[in-house]
Protein 1
Amino acid sequence: MANPELVISSCSSHEEENHCNFNQQKLNFFFMNSCEKFWAQERKPWKLSIQILKIAVVTIQLVLFGLSNQMVVAFKEENTIAFKHLFLKGYMHQMDDTYAVYTQSDVYDQIVFTVNQYLHLYNVFIGNHAYENKDTEQSTMAICQHFYKRGNICPGNDTFDIDPEIETECFFVEPNEPFHTGTPAENKLNLTLDFHRFLTVELQFKLKAINLQTVHHQKLPNCFDFTLTITFDNKAHSERIKISLDNDISIRECKDWHVSRSIQNTHYMMIFDAFIILTCLVSLIFCIRSVIRGLQVQLESKEFSVSDQMEFVNRWYIMTIISDILTVIGSILKMEIQAKSVTSYNVCSILLGTSTMFVWLGVIQYLGFFAKHSLLILTLQAALPNVIRFCCCAAMIYLGYCFCGWIMLGSYHDKFHSLNMVSECLFSLMNGDDFHYGFPETELHTFISECKNLPNSGKYRLEDDPPVSLFCCCKK
Amino acid sequence: MANPELVISSCSSHEEENHCNFNQQKLNFFFMNSCEKFWAQERKPWKLSIQILKIAVVTIQLVLFGLSNQMVVAFKEENTIAFKHLFLKGYMHQMDDTYAVYTQSDVYDQIVFTVNQYLHLYNVFIGNHAYENKDTEQSTMAICQHFYKRGNICPGNDTFDIDPEIETECFFVEPNEPFHTGTPAENKLNLTLDFHRFLTVELQFKLKAINLQTVHHQKLPNCFDFTLTITFDNKAHSERIKISLDNDISIRECKDWHVSRSIQNTHYMMIFDAFIILTCLVSLIFCIRSVIRGLQVQLESKEFSVSDQMEFVNRWYIMTIISDILTVIGSILKMEIQAKSVTSYNVCSILLGTSTMFVWLGVIQYLGFFAKHSLLILTLQAALPNVIRFCCCAAMIYLGYCFCGWIMLGSYHDKFHSLNMVSECLFSLMNGDDFHYGFPETELHTFISECKNLPNSGKYRLEDDPPVSLFCCCKK
Amino acid sequence: MANPELVISSCSSHEEENHCNFNQQKLNFFFMNSCEKFWAQERKPWKLSIQILKIAVVTIQLVLFGLSNQMVVAFKEENTIAFKHLFLKGYMHQMDDTYAVYTQSDVYDQIVFTVNQYLHLYNVFIGNHAYENKDTEQSTMAICQHFYKRGNICPGNDTFDIDPEIETECFFVEPNEPFHTGTPAENKLNLTLDFHRFLTVELQFKLKAINLQTVHHQKLPNCFDFTLTITFDNKAHSERIKISLDNDISIRECKDWHVSRSIQNTHYMMIFDAFIILTCLVSLIFCIRSVIRGLQVQLESKEFSVSDQMEFVNRWYIMTIISDILTVIGSILKMEIQAKSVTSYNVCSILLGTSTMFVWLGVIQYLGFFAKHSLLILTLQAALPNVIRFCCCAAMIYLGYCFCGWIMLGSYHDKFHSLNMVSECLFSLMNGDDFHYGFPETELHTFISECKNLPNSGKYRLEDDPPVSLFCCCKK
Amino acid sequence: MANPELVISSCSSHEEENHCNFNQQKLNFFFMNSCEKFWAQERKPWKLSIQILKIAVVTIQLVLFGLSNQMVVAFKEENTIAFKHLFLKGYMHQMDDTYAVYTQSDVYDQIVFTVNQYLHLYNVFIGNHAYENKDTEQSTMAICQHFYKRGNICPGNDTFDIDPEIETECFFVEPNEPFHTGTPAENKLNLTLDFHRFLTVELQFKLKAINLQTVHHQKLPNCFDFTLTITFDNKAHSERIKISLDNDISIRECKDWHVSRSIQNTHYMMIFDAFIILTCLVSLIFCIRSVIRGLQVQLESKEFSVSDQMEFVNRWYIMTIISDILTVIGSILKMEIQAKSVTSYNVCSILLGTSTMFVWLGVIQYLGFFAKHSLLILTLQAALPNVIRFCCCAAMIYLGYCFCGWIMLGSYHDKFHSLNMVSECLFSLMNGDDFHYGFPETELHTFISECKNLPNSGKYRLEDDPPVSLFCCCKK
C-alpha cells in the first residue's frame, strides 16, 4: 500500500518536467483507489457499491440467523437447568461442581428419587415433555452399574486382591410398570451396590419435547429428543461420589403437525438468502478479475524487486474472495437447514460468522484512503521481527515456570493441580488480574449452628440400621 | 484561547517599538481575562463574581433536591424488596434471576401463597399498607392466565395440533370475601391450569402506603400507589416457570391530612429557588452581552481567517448560556413539584443535573488563565483527527469480532448468548477486567447430602397423587 | 540537597586554582553527609548510629505493641460475631446488610428469641460471660420502643393525622425473674407494638467477660464490659424492619485476681520503653543542635536567595525531630497503659504508628548520598505545578460528573443512590476496577422449589390468626 | 555475549588489512556460536543436539511424573473433603473458615455426631475405608480435652483465680464396643466439659484406604493411612468455638496384594529414567569440557580487564551444569520412589521442577544468536543499579506505611489485623487490584425470615433444660 503512494508522489512532484512515461502512468492508475479513479476517469465505483451492499445484507442475514439460533440455545439450556432441578435431589442453582453424595444411604436415596420423578413424569412436570414411544411401548430407563470383576479390599490389613477388568450390569425400569402407582419405588427397586467394587452407576433415559415458542415468530416448531444420563462417579473410591447430569439433545422435524395460523416467512427468507448468494457471486467475479489484472501488470513490470511485485496482488481482494466463498457456502447450508433437510447448525454458524467478520474487517481498507493510516501499517511491519523474538523468549520463560510450578506447588495449592490451571494462573498473574494467590475468595456458606437437627444428622438412621459386622471388611 | 495570547505576546514583545496600533490594543483588551482586565483598567470582575455565586447556590440547590429524591427512591426500593419477601414463597435476597418453579404442585402452591398473603394483609404486614378503596369497596386481585386457543401436543409421537391465537381468562379475588377467615385459600381457589397450553399467569393487585419519613424533615408526607404484578412465565414450555414481581409506583399528594407540628420550610425553599432563577438570569444577560460584543468585534476585523474569527465568540459563554437556561427551567419545574402541582421528577433532575455539571466544568476556564494549560488544549486539537481514525478502525474490528463471536460461540458459552452480552464481554476483555473466560466464578451452594429428607423430596407427595394415566398425553 | 552538591562540584573542579575561599569550604563541610564528613575529618558518625539504633528499637516496640493490640481486637471481634449468632435468630455469616424481618409475627419471634437467649445465658453460652452485678442485683435488659405520639394512618383513603413528636416507652426484663425457668418467654412478655406508629425498638443489656488468653503471654487478663444494643429499625415504614446488633466494649483492669504462675515481663517491657525514650531524647538533642547550627550558617551567609537559604535547614532533621517527639509521648503513654492507669489505646497507636512511619521514611535520606537520586527529586519539584494544575482540572470535571450522575441516575441504579457511592463508583471506573456497571455480580441463592413446606409458608399460621377485621385500618 | 561480537566486527572490518593475528582468530572462534562454528569449520553441533534431545526427554519425564503426582494429590483432597462432610455435622462446601459452634449443646452434639459416624463406619461410608488393625484389635478414637488446672472465673464481679498450667484428660472410644449397635452414642459418652476452664478438645483417630484408581494406569495401588484430628478451639473464651479437621496422610506400599492383570510399565519407566541420566551425564561432560577450555583461554589472554575475563566462562554452561546435576539426582530419586523404597515425593519434585525450568530457560541462549537480543541484555545491565536504588526507596516507604497502617487501622478494619494482611493489602492497592477498601464484597446469605421454626430456634430446648442456677457463676 505504501510503495505505490511513493511512486505517485515521486511522479507528481516531477510532473512539470514530464518525466512520467506511459508505464508509470499506467501503474499510477492501477494503484489508485476508488475515489481517485472516479476523479481521474469518472469511472463509477461499482466494486465499492457492491461491497457496501454486501456489508448490509450479510449483517442482516447473520442477525436473523443468530436470533433463531439464540432461541434454540435458550430452549436447550432452560431444559437442562429444569432437568437438574427435577431429577437431582436437593439440587440448587450453580452447584454442579460440588454436587456429590458421601454416604451409602444417600446413594440409594438419590437413585430412588430420580426413578420416582421419572415414573411420575405426567404428574410432576409442567412442560410438554413425554416418554419416547417405541412401537406401542414406552421407552425404558436403564440403570447400569460398572464394577471390578473381583475385589477383596482390606485396607485394615493393607491387603487387596483385585481383578481390574470391568463388568457391567444393567437393570430396566419401564414407565408403565404397575409398581409406581402410589407407593414409593424404594421397596420395588432390587438394586444393591457393592461399594467396594463399583466404579460408576449410570441412569439413562429419553424424553421428548416440542419447542412451541417459534410459533410466535411464524416458524414451524421443532421436535427435540433429550437423552439424559445421570452418572454416579466412584472411580476414585474416596468416599465422595460425584453426580453429574448430561443432557444430549437432537433436533428433528416433527412428523405430523397442524398449525391454525399460516407459517410463511420461510419463503421470504429463502429469497433473501438467494439474493445474498447472487451479491456475493458478483463481488467474487469483480475481485477475481482485479486479481488477474494485477497478476498481468506484475508480469509486465519485471523491473521491480520481489517484495514490490507482491504489492500488485492486493491482499484485500484475497480476503474478500475468501469471505465471498464462505458466505455462498454458508447461505446454501442455511437454506437447507431451513428446508429441514440438514441440521448442521455449527458448520453453518462457523461459515457465516467468519465471512461476516471478514466483511467488517474489510471496511478498514477504505480507511486506508487516508495516507497516515498506511504509515501506521509500515511501522507495524518494521517492528514485527523484534516483537516475534520477544514473544519467543517470553514463551520459553513462561513454559519453564509452568512446568516448575506444576511439579513443585501442585501438591500444595489448588491452582497448581494441573498444567492447564498453572498456565491459566500464571497468565492471570501476568495480566494483573489476580494477586490473591493463596487466598481463595470463597463465599462461605455458614449454616453451622443454625441447622442442628436436620433429618440427616445421623440420629434417625441408627435405629433402622442392621447391627454392624465389624470384622467383615473382606468381602468377595 | 491560544491565538489571542499569541497576539498579546507578539505585541508585548515589540512594545518598545510602539508597533501596537489602536486596533491591536482593542483586540488585546477583548481577549484579556478577568484578572488582566482588572489590572489593565481596574474594571471590577462582576461576571466572575456572578459565576462564583452561581456555583455555590446551584450546588446547594442540587444537593437539597438530591437528598429529597434519595429518600423517595429508598422508600420505593425498600418496599419492592419487602414485597418480594412477602408475596414470593421462599424468596431470598438477590435471587431474582434464578427464582423459578419446576413442578405442577409448585405452581399451585406459589399462587395460593400469594393470594393468602394478600388476603391476610392486615395480620401479616408491618408497615402502613392498605388495599385501595374504590367507592366503599376494596380493590380486588386479578388472576389472569393466557393460553393457546387450542393445543394438542404429543411430543411422544412427534405430533402437535396448535392454534397460536392467545386467549385470556381472568379470575378475581376480593379481600372481603368470607373464605379467607381461617382456612387456607387452597380449597377455595377454583384455578386449574392446562400446563400444555398456558403461556403466562399474572397476579395483579394494588396496595397503598404513606411515606411518613419526610415528617422528620419538615416535609409533607406523600401518598404512594403500588401496582404489583407477579408473572409466571411459561412461554418457553421448558419445565421451568420463571416468576418475577414488578412494582409500579405512582406518587400523589394525600387527600386529607393533619400534622401537629408545622411543616414550614417549603416557603424558604421557594424563596431560595427564586433567588437562583434571578442569579441565572443576571448571568445570562452578562453572557449574551459578551457574545454580542464578540460578534461585533468579529464583523469589524475581517482581516483574520475563518478559524481565527471563530475565536471571537468565546465557547465558554455558550456553555454558560446553556447552563443558565437549563437552571432556570429546572428551578421553575422544581418549584411546581414542591407545590405538588407536577410530579415530573425525572425531567427536573435531568435539567438540574446537566446544568450543575456545566457550571462545574465551567470552572476550568478560570484555570485557563495560566498559559501552559492552553498548550495542552492545542496539542489535543492537533491529535484529534488521528484519534478519530484509530477509533473507526477499532470499531470495525470490534464489530467484526462481535458478530463472529455471537454466531460461533453463542451455542457454547453463556457470555455469547446475545449480541449485548458479546459486546459487553469483549469490552471487558479489552479493558483488562476479566480473563477468566470459560471459567465462571460461581459461588457453589452445596446442600447436597445435608438436606436429604426435606419435605420436598418427593416421598410425601406420592400417596396423595392420583394414579398416573400413562397414555393420556394428548389432551384437548 | 541538590544545590550543595552543585557548590561542591563547582568548587572541586576548580580546586587546583585555589578559588575555594574559607567560607565556601565551611559551607562545603556543612552540606557534607555523614560518609563525606567521615572521609574529610574522620568525624565519627554518631548521629547515623543513633538513627540506626532508633530504627531497630522503635520497630521492635511497635511490633510488640501491635501484637498485644491484635489480641484485644481479635477478642472484640470474635465476641461480636458470637453475639450475633447467639442473639439474632437465624443469623448467618456475613448477612449483616440483609438481616431484616418482614411480618408482624417475625418481629415478636425475634424479640422473644433474644430475651430467651439472654435469660438462659448460663445454660446456652460457652464462654466466660456473665450478667453485670449491680450491688447484689443482676443487671436488667431494657426493651424500649419509640413511636409517634399520635398516628392515624389510612393509606386506603389517602388520609393521615399524625403528631410527629416521638415518645419512648421502656420495659425491663430481669434475669432472676421466675418466669424463665422452663416455659418460653412468649407468654410472659406483655409487649404489644403498634406497627402504624412505632419507629424503633431497642433491646439493650450488658454482659461481662475476661480475656484469659493473655495469661499465656505472661500478661494480666483484662476485664471487658459489653454493652449490646439490638435495634429494630422501622423508620421508613416500608414493610421491612432492619435488625442490627451494636457491641460497645470497654476494657478495665479486673478488681480482684489471682494467678498461680508469675506475670512478670511487664517490668522488662517498662525498661525497654524507658530505653527507647532515652534513645529518642539523644537523637532529639543531636537534631536540634544541627538545626540551630544550620540557622547560624544561614544568618552568616546573606548572599544567597531566599529559596537557597531554605536549604540550610535540613528538612530531614525536622522530620526526625517530629518523629522523636511522637515516640517519646507515645512510649510514655504506652507505659501508663501497661500500668493499667490509662486505656487510651487509640491515641497511643496513632503516636507510635506515625513516629515509626517517619523513622522508616527517614531511611530514604541515606539513599540520597548517591547523586542520581537527587536528580529524581529535582525533576519531581519542577513537574509539581503542572501536576497540581492537572489535578485541579480533573477534580472540577470529577465533581461535575458526580453531581450530574447522582441527580440523574440516582433513581435508576443502586450505585448512584448517594453522593458517596457515586464518587466511589466513578473513582473505581477511573481506576479501571469495575466495568460491570449495571450488572451486579450477585451470587444467587436459589432455594425456590426445594424449600416448599418450610414452616414459614403461611399455611400453619392461618388457623391461629384472629379473624381479619377488614375495615379497621384507621386505628388510634 | 556482547564484547566478543564487538571483537568479531572490529576484526572483520579490518580484514583486508590482515590485522587479525592468530590470537584474535582463536578468540574469534572461541566466541562463535554453534551456527557460526558450523559455517566456519563445518564442525557438527553435537552440543546443540544433546541439548535439544535433553529438552524433549526431561519434559516428557516431568509430565509423566507430574501426572502420577496429580493423581495422588487428587486422592488426598477428595478424601479430605469427604471426611469434612462425614465427620463435621452440617458442614457444607467451602465453609472451613466460618465453621464454628456457639452454644453448649452444639459442642456436645458435634462430638456425639463425630463419634457416631466413626463407630458406624462400615454402614455409612461408601469407599474402601477401614479402621487400623493393631494386632487383632481395632484402633481407638482418642477424645482429649485440654484445660486450665484451676479456674474460678467470675466476670460478673470482675474477679478471677486461675492456674494457667494446662492439664490434659483423654478418653478412648473403641469401634468394637457393644454400645454402638443401635442406640445413639449420646447416652453412653460420659464426657462433661467444664466450659470455664477448657481450652481445646481434640478427637483423633486413624483410617486406612487403598487408592485403586492407579490400577487403570498399570500401576500398583498404594496404601494410605489417614490420621484425622478434629479440633474444638476455645482458647479465646469468646463464645465461639472454631472447629477444624486436619487430615495427615502417609503413603505406604501395601503388604500383601494380588492383581489379576499384569502391572508392567514400571520397567519401561526405569529404562527411560536411566536413558535421561545418561543424556544428562553426556551433556554434563560436554559443558564441563567447555568451561575448562574457557578457563584455559582466560589464562592465556591476560591482556583483558577483569570484567572481560568473566566473559570467557559462559554463564549458560554454568546453568546447564546445575540443571544436569539436578536432573541426575532427581531421576535417581524418582527410580527409587518407583521401586517403593523411598517416598520423598517433595524433594524429587523440587529437583525435577528446578532442572526442567533451567532447561527451558536455557533455550533463550539460542535466541541470543541474533545480535539485537544482546543489545536488550546490555541495556538491562546498564539500568540495573538505578532500578535497585528505586526498589530500596520504595521498600522503605512501603515498610513505613505497613507498620503505620497496622498499628493505627488494625483496630478498625479486617484487612489491617495482622502485618501479613496489611502488607498484602497494600501490595494489592499498589498493584491496582482492589480499590474497595472498606467495602468488603461479601455475598450475603439471607435466610432470615424464611427459616423461622427451624429446630434450633431455641423453643424446643427450653423444656428439657435444667432450671437455671443464677448465682453459680463461680465454679471450681
Protein 2
Amino acid sequence: MRNTDEKWLRIAACEGRIGARKGEGGPFGACVVKNGVLIGRAHSEVIKRSNPCAHAEINAIRLACRKLKTVDLSGATLYTSCEPCPMCMGAALWARLSRVVYGVSIEKATEIGFDHSLFYDYFKDRSIVRWLEVKEVKSKGCTDLMNAWLLNPRRQHY
Amino acid sequence: MRNTDEKWLRIAACEGRIGARKGEGGPFGACVVKNGVLIGRAHSEVIKRSNPCAHAEINAIRLACRKLKTVDLSGATLYTSCEPCPMCMGAALWARLSRVVYGVSIEKATEIGFDHSLFYDYFKDRSIVRWLEVKEVKSKGCTDLMNAWLLNPRRQHY
C-alpha cells in the first residue's frame, strides 16, 4: 500500500508543478484513484479562474465525479500533495471518499503563506477569524424552501 | 440592516426554489452582495453537474469572483438560505468575505436528510466519520513542490 501511495502522490506533485509553472494557482496537485485506476487529476486553478474555490482537490473530485457520472466516490482515494484545507476536507466528506492521503502536512502550507491552519482553528473557535461575521436572520422564505423538499417529486438524495 | 438582510435572503430562497424545481440540486440558494449590489446568485447544482462540490454558496462565490475579476470578496456578504456546511464556510474564508448571513440553521438541514451537522462534528473529532481514513505519507516530490513556491517567479499570493 505504501509504495502505491507514494506512486500516486508523485502524480499529485507532478500536477502541482504543472499548475505552479503555468502560474495557474498555488503549488498544489491532486488525483483521485479507484481500484488502482486514475479517474481524475488536477492542480490549483485559483489564479487562472479567479476562483478561490478552485483548489486542486475540488477540481480533482469534480473531474472524477464527471468521469464516473456520480457524486459518490466511496471506495476511492484522494491523493493530494498537501494536507487539505477545511473546504477540501468538506468536499471529500460530501464525495464519500474512503481515503485521503497527503504528502506534506499543513504546517508547510503555513510556512509558505497559505491559511489552511488558521481555517482549521476557525472550526474550533469562530472568534479567531475577526474579519468574518456569521449571522442567522430567520427567514420564512428559506424555511418554506426547506420544508418543501420532502414533498418535492424531483428530490434526489445525495 | 435587518430589512436589507431579509431582502437578500428572499433572493437566496428564490434561487433555491428555482434549483429544486428544476431538479438541479438540493433546496439551497445563495447570493453575494457588495455595496448594496448583487454580484452573484446561484443554487445547488450537485445533481445537474454530478458534482458534490457544486453547492449554492460555492457557485455564488465563483460567479461573484468572476464578475469582479478577483479572488478577494472582502467587504461583501454571502446570503445563503441555509447555514453553510464546512466546505462552504471554508470557501467563504478563502474568499475573505466580510459577512455570511443565513436564513435557516443547520438543524433543519439534518431534519431533511443533509449531513452538514455531522461534518461540523468531524472538525472537532475526526473519529466520528468512520468511513474516511486520512493519512500522511511523507513525499519528497510534494515537499520539493512546496519549497519551490517561494522561488517561483509566477507566484501570486492569494
Protein 3
Amino acid sequence: MNTPNHYILTWQCPDNTGVLAKVSQSLFEHGAFITETSQYSDPYTETFFSRIAFDDRNLTVSAGEFIEALDDLAKPLTMSYKLRNKADIPKVIIAVSKDDHCLVSLLTKWKSGVLPINIVAVVSNHQTCQSLANWHGVPFHHLPITADTKAQQETQILTLMKETKADLLVLARYMQILSDDLCQQLAGRAINIHHSFLPSFKGARPYHQAHERGVKVIGATAHYVTANLDEGPIIAQEVKPINHTFTIEQMVHMGHDLEATALSHAVRIHAEQRVCLNGDKTVILT
Amino acid sequence: MNTPNHYILTWQCPDNTGVLAKVSQSLFEHGAFITETSQYSDPYTETFFSRIAFDDRNLTVSAGEFIEALDDLAKPLTMSYKLRNKADIPKVIIAVSKDDHCLVSLLTKWKSGVLPINIVAVVSNHQTCQSLANWHGVPFHHLPITADTKAQQETQILTLMKETKADLLVLARYMQILSDDLCQQLAGRAINIHHSFLPSFKGARPYHQAHERGVKVIGATAHYVTANLDEGPIIAQEVKPINHTFTIEQMVHMGHDLEATALSHAVRIHAEQRVCLNGDKTVILT
Amino acid sequence: MNTPNHYILTWQCPDNTGVLAKVSQSLFEHGAFITETSQYSDPYTETFFSRIAFDDRNLTVSAGEFIEALDDLAKPLTMSYKLRNKADIPKVIIAVSKDDHCLVSLLTKWKSGVLPINIVAVVSNHQTCQSLANWHGVPFHHLPITADTKAQQETQILTLMKETKADLLVLARYMQILSDDLCQQLAGRAINIHHSFLPSFKGARPYHQAHERGVKVIGATAHYVTANLDEGPIIAQEVKPINHTFTIEQMVHMGHDLEATALSHAVRIHAEQRVCLNGDKTVILT
Amino acid sequence: MNTPNHYILTWQCPDNTGVLAKVSQSLFEHGAFITETSQYSDPYTETFFSRIAFDDRNLTVSAGEFIEALDDLAKPLTMSYKLRNKADIPKVIIAVSKDDHCLVSLLTKWKSGVLPINIVAVVSNHQTCQSLANWHGVPFHHLPITADTKAQQETQILTLMKETKADLLVLARYMQILSDDLCQQLAGRAINIHHSFLPSFKGARPYHQAHERGVKVIGATAHYVTANLDEGPIIAQEVKPINHTFTIEQMVHMGHDLEATALSHAVRIHAEQRVCLNGDKTVILT
C-alpha cells in the first residue's frame, strides 16, 4: 500500500463505561493510524459523541473486515456510526433564489479547494444565478414554483438529488419554505441559512424585524432544516455589532457577509463529518 | 470666571431644514465653547437628535439668559431638550436580589471614577448584598416582597427615590417584575439587565432556554424598563460565542461578565446623556 | 428642478469656536437640504471633522455660486473640503495577485449595488483572475513584474489610473510591495488589506506568524498604503476567535472571510467619503 | 465508598500509535468512571494532549495502585501527567498594584463559587487594595519594592508561596516586571494579564500605544509569565471594537472589563487543568 487511504469515523452511543476504551482499542488492534480524535460526553442526554480520523498505512485487515469488526463493536454499544473514505467527498446541491452572495461564497471556496464538497447542481426558482453557476461549470436547473406546483417542484428536487446521488441540499438564501414532507425526507441532509441570530426574528424579513426592535447586534444562523420553520438544530452563528445609524439596507448589506461566512462554515464542518445531531441541538467535534 | 462650568445639552425635534444651523448658531452667538457634538437624523421617524457638550468660558450671557434663549429656540422647533451642568451627576439607586456580580461591577467602577453617577442607595428583597453595599459606604435598604406586599414595597422604592432625589433606578439582576404602574412612573428612568440577547429568551431562566435551544452565541441586554416585559428600548448588548460543551452553569458564569459589562456601559452612557429615546428604540450619541 | 442632486461634503479644519455654526449656517442660508450630518472634534489634535450630505431641492443659488461661497468660508477657517455630487461615484482599479477571494467579494458587492464605486479595471501580476474579471465585464490588465521591471510596471499602473481617471487603487491581496514613490503619489488613494490584526504580524505570511505565536484571535486590517509597510492609517479591522486546533491552512481559510469583509467595508466607507485622515489615523464619520 | 472521589488526569506524550487506546484501556480496566474526555493531537509537534475526568465509584484498585499503574504506563510512552483529586483545588496568591478591577473580579467569582481555587493571599507593592482583600477575608501582604530591594521582595513572594503551599501566582495588574530568575522558578505557575491583544503593544502603556496607532479593536491577553516580557504562552484573549471617538481614558475603562474577563477565564481553565504547555503555545482542553 503506497499512498494510505484516509478515513473519517463519526459515532455516537449511550455513554456507558469503557465506550472510548473499547472503540480506541479496536482501532488500535486493527492497526488504524489515528490522526485526529475528538470526543464529547453530554451530561444532559448521557450520550457519547466521537470523531476519529485515521489512515490505513498500518491496517492489519482489509477494509471489509475492518467494517465487520466495527459492526460487531457497534451492536452491543447501541452505537450508530458513519465511516467514510475521506476521498469520497459529499455531493452537494445548492438551492438559491435571487440573492447570490451565499452562492458566490460557496462556489468560490469550493473552487479554491477550501470546501471538501462536490457541487453537482444549482437549483433555483429564478434564473438570476444561471450564468454564475454555469461560469463555474455547475449544471443549473431552473425549477419555478407556484402554489399549485409546489409538490411537483419538490419532487423534481428530490429526483435530482437521487440522480446526482447528492448527500446534502444547501439552501443558500432560497426563499421558499420546504414542505413538511420534504423536510422529513431530508432530515440531517439539508442546511439552511437564516439571516438573523435565531431564535430571534424567525420567518420573513428578519432585518426589518431587527431594525424595528432596535437591537444592537445582528446575526446569521446556519441550521439543519426541520418541519418547524427556523427551529432546526443550529450549526453555526455569526454576529456583529450595529448601531442606530444602520438603515435596513445597510443591515442587509452587512448581513450578506455574516450569512456567507456562517453558511460556508456550516457546510465545511458538515462535510468533514464534524456535526452530530443531539436531539434538537448539535455537537461540533473540532 | 476662573474655572469654566461644563454643560451637556441633549435635544431632539422634527427634522426640518436648518435645525442644526439654528441651534449651533444660537450657541455660537451666546459664546458657548463647544467641546463635543454628535447628531443623528433618523430617516424613518424624521427626527433629529443631537448632543452638544460645551463650557461657559466665553459665555456672553448669564446661565439664566442662556436657558431663556434656548426656550425661545425650542418652541418653534417643537424641540425637547435636557440641559445639565456636567458636575450635577445623576443620583442612582441600584436594586438587586441575590446575585452580586452586576452590583460589584457598578460599585467598583463608580468608586474608581469610571461612572459619572452618585450611588445613593442599594435596595434589595434579600439581605445578601448588605455588607457589600455598606463596605462601599452606600446605604442598604432591605425591602422584602411578597405577592401581598408588592404594591407597598414599590411605594417604598418610589419614596426612597423621591427622598434621595434619585434620577435613575438600575435593576442589577433584581429578580422581581415591576408593576405596570411603576414602569410607567419610571419611564426612561429605569434600566434593567436581561441575561440574554433580546428578543431571544425573554422571561425566566434565559440561559436554560439558550441551552435548550442550542445556540452558539449567548448574550446580555441592557434596556429601559417598560410595562412589556423585556420589550423596552435596548441600550447595549454584549454577545459571546459558546459551543456544545458549555453546561448551563458555565453559561451562567460566563454570562456574568457579559451582564456586568453591558449594564455598566448602559449606565455610563445614560449618565452622560448619550441615550435618546426614539419610539421603542434608542439613539446613542457618542 | 425635478429630481434633486445629492451632494456629499466632507471637511476638516482647526477646531475653533463657531466652526460648525458657520458651516451649517452657510448651508442653511443657501437652502441646502441636509439629510445626514456627522461630526467629530478630536481633543488630541484639536481638529474638527465633518461630513454633511444634502440635496439641492431648495438651493437658492447655482452649484457654482454655492462652491464659491464654500471657498469663501473655507479660507478663514483654514478648512480643507471635498464636495462631490453623490452620483459621481469613484472610479476604482483593483490590483490582485493569485488569491481571488477579496476580488470576488468586491466584484459581487459592486454588481449587486452594495458598493457605490465604478470598477474600471483589474490589474494583476498573474493571469489567474483574468476570466473572473472578464466575466464581470471588467477590463483585465496583466502586468507581470520582476525586480528589473518594477519601476516600469508601476508606471503602467499609474498610466492606467490616469487613462481611466481612477480615484482609488485597491490592493485586494496584491502580493507586491509598492515603491515609496508610488505610495507617496497615491497617498490617501490606495487601500490595502493585510491579513492580520495590525500592528501584530506585519510583513510576510502573517497567519504563519500568528500560528507560531499561538494567539487566540486572528484578524484582518484594511488600511491606507504608506511608504512604511503595513503602518498606514487603519480604516477597518475584523477579528475572530480561534483555538489551538486551527492549522495554518484553517486560519488562512477562515481569514479569507475576515479579509473580504474588512476590505469591502473599507472601500464602501471610503467611497461614501466617510473616512478622514487624522495624521496617521482615521476618523470614520458614519 | 459512598460519595465518589473525582479526579482530573491531564497528560501529554509523543503521538505514537495506540496512545489513546492504551490510556483509555488502562483506565477502563481499573474501573475508572470517565465523565469528561478531551484530546488534541498536534500535527506540528507530533504531541498528544489529553485531559480525562473520572471518578472512583467503580475503581477496582486502591488510589495508590492506580497511580502505580499509571506510572508503569507513562514510562514507555514518555508521557508526563498530572493527576489530581478534584477536591484539592489549587492555592493561589494574587499580586496587584493599585488598580483593583482584576482583583475584584477574581475575589467576587471566587466567593460566588465560580472559580475552583483557594485564594490564600494578596500581595502588593502598594496598600490600596488592603481593605478589599481583608473584607474578603484574605490575608494581605504589603511588599513595597525599590530598585534596591527587588531581589529581596521577590524572595518574600517566593517564601510566601512556599509557606502557603501556593500553586499559582496571578499577576492581576501587578505593574512590576518579575526578574528572569523568578520567571524561571515559576514557569507554568504564574499567569499575567496584559492590557493589549498581544503581540501588539507589549510593554508599558499599551492603551496609549493603541490610541497612537489608531487601531479599531482593543484587547487583553492572559498568558503565562516568562523571562521574555509579554512573550509567554497565551491562554486567553478578549477583544472589542472601538472607534476614533474613544479617548485613551475610555479605552482604559472599557479595557478593564476585557482584562478581568480574560484573566478570570484563564485562571479558571488553569485551575481545572485544561491548559497544557505546547512549547511557547498552549493547548486548551475544554
